[in-house]
Write a structure and sequence with these properties.
single chain; alpha/beta; Rossmann fold; 5 helices; 6 strands
Length: 183
């Protein structure tokens, strides 16, 4: 009897700058997921096209990895539902082309603005491409003002809320259909 195909994952990290997204990825998801971030193309043109291509390539890589990789993590702010819709388009396109299922999961980094501003202040302004770098506080405040927590209605199969819980620690809890933590 053939085993059921395990769906690939398209993980969308949602949160303002310095909320812990990249650190969380490195500590908890990097071993089994391909990393896609606009920071990798900082200062170069065509970033959305490159991002789309990288997501599809990462899903293909995960599909061909024999189970070593589970999928792709998109590590950007992704602050609005409209912004996040392009990732659902990538998942649908990949599934249509390969007939492989893709689950779309959100990790919502529910971080306080003042903590993010403090962590950001410790970042270097000249960080290497692909690494967290100093962002002007006015930009962080602007992203915080338009932040829309992810909702099931967008199409997510699962939403997890992530909070920083002490130095280098994270608290992760599932979010129910009502937008509240399932505790």
């Amino acid at each position: 009897m053939p085993s059921e195909v395990q769906p690939l994952e398209l993980v969308i990290l949602v949160g303002i700058q310095a909320s812990g997204k990249t650190t969380f990825f490195r500590r908890h998801l990097a071993e089994r997921h391909v990393h896609v971030s606009l920071d990798n193309w900082r200062g170069k043109g065509g970033v959305r096209r490159r991002e789309h291509e990288a997501i599809l390539a990462g899903l293909h890589e995960a599909a061909g990895s024999g189970g070593r990789l589970r999928g792709v993590v998109v590590d950007n702010t992704n602050t609005t539902a409209a912004t996040r819709q392009r990732y659902f388009d990538c998942a649908r396109r990949f599934s249509a082309e390969t007939r492989l299922p893709v689950r779309v999961r959100a990790y919502f980094f529910d971080a306080d603005l003042e903590g993010c501003l403090a962590r950001n202040a410790a970042r270097p302004a000249d960080a290497a491409v692909g690494t967290p770098y100093y962002v002007p506080p006015v930009a962080i405040r602007a992203f915080a003002a338009r932040l829309q927590p992810p909702a099931r209605e967008e199409g997510f199969d699962e939403i997890l809320r992530v909070r920083i819980a002490g130095e280098g620690q994270f608290q992760v809890e599932p979010v129910g259909p009502d937008g509240q933590a399932d505790t």
